[in-house]
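Suppose you are handed a protein chain with no further information: no name, no annotation, nothing but its sequence. What can you learn? This example shows the usual starting point.
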Amino acid sequence: MTYSIVAWDPDVPQWGVAVQSKFLAVGSVVSAAAAGVGAVATQAWANPQYGPDGLALLREGLSAAEVVERLIAADPGRDERQLGIVDRNGASAAHTGPNCHDWAGHRTGDGYTAQGNILVSRATVDALAETFEAGPGQSLARRLIDCLAGAQVAGGDKRGQQSAALLVVQEGAGYAGLTDVIVDLRVDDHERPIEELRRLYGLHDRLFGVTPDEDWLPLDGALADEVTALLNRTGYMSLREWAGAANLEERMRDEPRIDPVVLEALREDASA
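A reasonable first move is to predict its three-dimensional structure. Written in structure tokens, the prediction is:
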């Protein structure tokens, strides 16, 4: 009743899972990932232990294929399970049990595995894979959302849509540098969950994304005067105080420069 993609970006590196289903709060069941370790999707007649158990085996140094083999060998319900894993080196492996409801199947490639069950056709899984393969140059999060969207256009879950989720991890790259979780967004019940997931990710990226250093603007001269005037309009004494209230503190630095995202948000707030 689900389609998903598990993937990694070796250039960062990041690991992630994106999933959509005609099932309430699918992200609470399917997705698991750990930075420097790998990522797991468990679905069909899902075994929720595949997530933590799979990550534990990956931490021991087993490959994705070895972990899949180990998990299904120990599970009497294996014939109704579906499982996809990408390990710390980007190797992928998957399992689709023979008793999963049609259409069910998977496709693995370099750095990803795509899988689904109760689908309109194989075209859904092919779209997941082909969209991912065509997407280098974007962030892993955006690529994974694009994969879900492409799969939905190709047919998706034959029962329709209800929930979607996105999980992306990277060592020390989460909030305040104190967590590995970069993105953990869930749309639990929505008529168009992939569209809503994309909207939420846009908000997330605005608050927590990283602007390249060369794009930051010197906070002096006319721009410094403008920022002071804007702050006066909003009633805040300092840019840092305003940014904290706007949840943009992750985009602040202790230097006389400003992130253009912060500047745009301040302008919008002052003109509201």
